[in-house]
Amino acid sequence: VGTLTIAAPDAWDATVFTVNATQPGFGRDATEAVAEAIAAAAAHGGGVVYFPRGQYFVRGALVLPEGAVARGAGADLVSLYFAENNATTAPDAYVTGAPGARRFGVEDMTLYVTSYANNVVRFAPGTDGSFLRRSRIRYNSYFCLEPSEGQGSRGRTTAWPQDQGTAVLIAGANVVVEDNDIYSSGDVVS
Question: By CB neighbour count within 10 A (0-12 exposed, 13-18 middle, 19+ buried), where does 103 fall?
């Protein structure tokens, strides 16, 4: 015989930190604007990093602090394009929680990765109560590329002979992945 304890989930802070990046987005670098909104959420102790309708071109990873939610205006309205990396320059994940962050979320946006990735979205061990909802992931690591031993396509060949990473890597507890549309040239969910 044991004791069953039922507790309400921790509340998410609804304070909004808007990503103020110049639109239209094509050819524009939104990295600094995204970093500013994430830093503001971290300083506040969590909140919503909000992406209004548009295209966001980002260098590096989105590392979300404890209690932060990256929320777009809708998967059909918000697109994040991550800069191309290779097997030695790609981050561990393009979207993940900060070290020690157990709760973070991603919802209502489309993520594009068109080159090498270890992981697109990563829920690390120790994650507890995180989510990926109503989002789209398009992870095509071979976009416009030929195998390294073949002839170049559009002048480019792959710089990696090994297998690709995972679109969504899940570890931890109480992780919700629901109502998403995921395409991956590597593993989809692991």
Answer: buried
**Could you read off the pLDDT of 71-110 as tens digits, one per residue?**
999 999 999 999 988 888 899 999 999 999 999 999 999 9
Sign of CA dihedral 82, 57, 65, 182: negative
Distance CA 10, CA 103 (A): 9
In 85-144, beta strands by DSSP E: 95-97, 104-107, 110-113, 119-123, 131-133, 136-139
* pLDDT one-digit tens code per residue, 127-179: 999 999 999 999 987 655 555 555 555 555 555 555 678 999 999 999 999 99
Mean pLDDT of the chain: 88
Report percent pLDDT > 70 for the chain.
87
Measured between alpha carbons, how far is 103 from 129 in angstroms, rounded to an integer?
5
Rg (CA), the chain: 17
pTM for the full predicted model: 0.87
**How many angstroms separate the CA atoms of 92 and 62, rounded?**
11
Residue 50: partners with Cβ closer than 8 Å, 6 or more residues away: 16, 17, 18, 19, 37, 71, 72, 73
Q: Quickly tell me which residue has 């990396």 as its tokens.
A: 85
